[in-house]
Recover the amino acids of this structure.
């Protein structure tokens, strides 16, 4: 006999409670903004930030939200996985963009030079000195990017190994190339570096996609970089009456890292079929059941408020499909158990 | 060996007597627990599986059961409580002590790894180690892998070899999921499949290095404890006599080696209570297998299953939804 589960029917003796909701957003960014607005609303109603958590299947799924939280000055801590802009491969990409935006950025130069095979710290230092000496052009959004002498170094003093790097930078520097296109082209240059440098590049590749996807909302490289790197301005939440709890922070967590914990309010984001469950799990029954248990663990963390959100119109590069269906673990659950909300802009 | 006759010794009775109904306990268990919790707490002898749903007071139940056993007269030192973090064990025993008295502090509690360490210090020579063996943490172990990787000249200019973290992850997965290297590579690192031979050679070198230098990593602690129990009957029986009541928390997250250890430790007297929730098994990528909890009643003769379903965390509308999510799971 093979048993697949022990049936159980949890109940509480405490009456009342608000219906959990499924929230449909037209795109990823609206999903993030929904979470931001709802968090602020609940905070005003007296739910402390650290009594609220946003949970997701995979660490990269919170990247867009992290940017929106930074913009709204909502302090947060993230458990499980790294913060988006702290991951090494995202830092690599940001560094390429930074030298285009600000050709004097020696820190970013150093990082991308060291990514080139055969370039060590000493060569990198020399190259950077050389770059800085040969003029400090007007940076800022690559406004004069294509003509920058920086990206056309002297033939004599440039190691051969760097030619393709400079060529790649020169091609994407012109301001008419949108941030998303810049990234797309840089990714072609970066690809061999990336696969060589990271053994687990298969797992990291989704991050790069997500990065490009976020960039699609921006027309200016500079504002994209500013949003990415902006630290939460202060520890306190603006426009909210501060309590004595200075360290009060919203919790962002992978579901795995949320095990055993509980919060007054839980948001489960990206409950989108193809993201949660992942496309990969669809090939294996056991893996699919484990995904379902993950959804169960996520939802059972909530004490009073539970919002399950998903964006639609999400392009999945791996399969070439547009993802628009709610997670199969939630789809088809009767209205008597779950309110449906649609997000609309003012 | 095969034609030797076996002389079977009868089990010594270590079971405590069933409590006299008129007996007065210091703790009013019936008042302080719900009926399912009470049933779990007052289950004493034989194998028990406690299915503790989310937010149903699992920690409370374990805490009260420790106190109950001690009140019944079980020696605290003969209760072994295995949890997933040391802190969890300490917290439960601290609470039990506050509930009853300081006797509960003498209960043996810890993680599978800390328990393995304790036992292997005593019996290390039986598994080929000196009892002063050192334990390699993850980064130590990775450094050893790196050392050998360089020594064996596996990384050449023409062909890139996986980094130390990747290699150690591959080795550890193979151990924890009891899966051949070949399959790990195929499933997780297909781009390194062509390097199977070299990776396998490195793994052998890693094992030899640890043995030669009297080193164990975390995985070894479990592996050697299992071999010790499996291959040395005398030791197994002596440990079974020492720990007559075994409790295991988060049983849904155990791997095969841990389940084997539980079975080997408890097979003598059969007093084992495992607690967990199959619906919250989410660590298969680390080698845990939900089969351990699902097949427990079949694996342990005379097992009683008790379900904790009264929730103290969520509102009923949230529970209605989560119940529905589970109802749709494969039956």
């Amino acid at each position: 006999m093979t048993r697949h589960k022990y049936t159980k029917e949890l109940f509480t003796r405490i009456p009342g409670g608000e219906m959990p909701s499924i929230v449909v957003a037209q795109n990823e960014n609206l999903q993030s903004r929904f979470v931001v607005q709802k968090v602020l609303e609940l905070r005003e109603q007296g739910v402390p930030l650290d009594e609220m958590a946003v949970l997701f299947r995979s660490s990269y799924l919170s990247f867009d939200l992290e940017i929106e939280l930074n913009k709204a000055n909502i302090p947060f801590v993230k458990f499980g996985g790294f913060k988006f802009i702290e991951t090494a491969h995202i830092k690599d990409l940001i560094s390429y963009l930074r030298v285009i935006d600000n050709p004097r950025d020696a820190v970013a130069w150093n990082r991308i030079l060291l990514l080139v095979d055969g370039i060590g710290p000493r060569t990198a230092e020399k190259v950077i000195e050389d770059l800085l000496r040969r003029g400090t052009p007007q940076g800022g959004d690559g406004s004069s990017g294509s003509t920058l002498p920086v990206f056309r170094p002297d033939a004599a003093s440039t190691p051969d190994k760097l030619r393709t790097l400079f060529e790649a930078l020169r091609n994407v520097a012109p301001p008419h190339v949108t941030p998303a296109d810049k990234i797309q082209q840089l990714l072609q240059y970066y690809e061999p570096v990336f696969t060589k440098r990271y053994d687990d590049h298969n797992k990291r590749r989704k991050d790069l996609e997500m990065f490009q996807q976020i960039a699609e909302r921006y027309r200016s490289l500079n504002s994209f970089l500013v949003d990415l790197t902006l630290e939460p301005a202060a520890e306190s939440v603006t426009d909210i009456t501060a309590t004595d709890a200075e360290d009060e922070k919203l919790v962002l967590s992978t579901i795995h890292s949320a095990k055993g914990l509980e919060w007054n309010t839980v948001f489960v984001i990206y409950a989108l079929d193809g993201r949660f469950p992942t496309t990969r799990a669809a090939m294996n029954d056991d893996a699919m059941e484990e995904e379902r248990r993950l959804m169960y663990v996520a939802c059972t963390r909530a004490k009073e408020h539970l919002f399950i959100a998903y964006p639609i119109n999400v392009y999945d590069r791996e399969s070439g499909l547009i993802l628009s269906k709610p997670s199969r673990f939630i789809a088809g659950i009767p209205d008597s158990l779950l309110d449906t909300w649609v997000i609309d802009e003012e | 060996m095969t034609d030797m006759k076996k002389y079977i010794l009868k089990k010594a009775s270590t079971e405590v007597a069933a409590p006299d109904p008129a007996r007065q306990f210091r703790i009013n268990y019936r008042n302080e627990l719900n009926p399912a919790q009470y049933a779990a707490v007052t289950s004493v002898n034989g194998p028990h599986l406690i299915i503790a749903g989310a937010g149903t007071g699992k920690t409370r139940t374990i805490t009260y059961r420790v106190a109950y056993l001690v009140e019944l007269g079980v020696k605290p030192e003969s209760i072994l409580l295995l949890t997933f973090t040391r802190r969890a064990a300490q917290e439960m025993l601290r609470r039990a002590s506050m509930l009853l008295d300081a006797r509960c502090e003498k209960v043996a509690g810890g993680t599978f790894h800390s328990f393995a360490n304790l036992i292997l210090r005593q019996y290390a020579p039986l598994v080929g180690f000196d009892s002063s063996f050192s334990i390699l943490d993850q980064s130590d172990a990775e450094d050893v892998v790196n050392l050998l990787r360089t020594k064996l000249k596996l990384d050449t200019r023409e062909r890139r070899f996986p980094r130390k973290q990747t290699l150690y992850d591959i080795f550890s997965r193979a151990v924890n999921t009891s899966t051949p290297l070949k399959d790990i590579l195929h499933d997780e690192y297909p781009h390194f499949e062509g390097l199977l031979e070299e990776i396998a050679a490195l793994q052998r070198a890693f094992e030899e290095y640890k043995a030669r230098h009297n080193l164990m990593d975390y995985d070894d602690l479990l592996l050697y404890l299992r071999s010790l129990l499996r291959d040395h009957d005398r030791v197994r029986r002596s440990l079974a006599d020492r720990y007559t009541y075994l409790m295991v928390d988060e049983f849904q997250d155990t791997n095969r080696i841990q389940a084997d250890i539980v079975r080997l430790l408890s097979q003598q007297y059969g007093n084992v209570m495992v607690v967990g929730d199959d619906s919250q098994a989410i660590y298969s990528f680390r080698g845990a297998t939900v089969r351990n909890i699902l097949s427990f009643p079949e694996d342990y003769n005379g097992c009683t299953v008790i379900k904790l379903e009264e929730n103290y965390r969520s509102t009923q509308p949230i529970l209605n939804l989560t119940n529905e999510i589970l109802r749709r799971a494969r039956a």
